[in-house]
Write a structure and sequence with these properties.
- It is built from 3 helices and 6 strands.
- With 140 residues, it is of the alpha+beta class.
- It has one domain: Roll (Thiol Ester Dehydrase, Chain A).
- It has a 6-stranded antiparallel sheet.
- Strand 1 and strand 2 (37-42) form a beta hairpin.
- The longest helix has 17 residues, at 56-72.
- The model has no long low-confidence stretch (mean pLDDT 97).
- Pfam families: 4HBT.
Length: 140
């Protein structure tokens, strides 16, 4: 059963990220499932650090983008979500191709949410695990 409380699609997620950091980094939304959002970021000149591998901060941007976008679409109408905490454990580097992430809920509550975001390289190897905690804000 879908967890979404408002319309969600790849097209909608792409539209709301026009002219934002995720768009400038080349983040693409790939899939919306009943309880997850999947997206990816290229490993290219925009996203690597001086060693030629994906910058850890870009992994965190991908994780927060997927998790917060998903969380926002399972709140009551008029509510918003804002990040309280994010952590990331970098497991393996990526020097080419794409890194793909999947955000899934750990806890969807009335005042807080927790999302797990796993990132993998093109070979399917885990590159980063991230956990995002968000506050759910009622309408003003």
């Amino acid at each position: 059963m879908p967890i979404w409380t408002r319309p969600i699609s790849i097209e909608e997620l792409t539209r709301i990220h026009q002219d934002t950091a995720p768009q400038h980094l080349g983040i693409e939304f790939l899939e919306v499932g009943d309880d997850h959002v999947k997206g990816r970021v290229p490993v290219d000149a925009r996203t690597v650090q001086p060693y030629g591998i994906l910058h850890g901060g870009v992994s965190v941007v991908l994780a927060e983008t997927l998790g917060s976008t998903a969380a926002a679409h399972c709140t009551p109408p008029g509510h918003r979500v804002v990040g309280l905490d994010i952590n990331a454990n970098h497991i393996r580097s990526a020097s080419s191709g794409w890194v793909t992430g999947v955000a899934k809920p750990v806890h969807v509550g009335r005042s807080t949410m927790v999302w797990q975001i796993d990132l993998r390289n093109d070979a399917g190897e885990l590159t980063c695990v991230s956990r995002l905690t968000l506050a759910v804000l009622a309408p003003r």
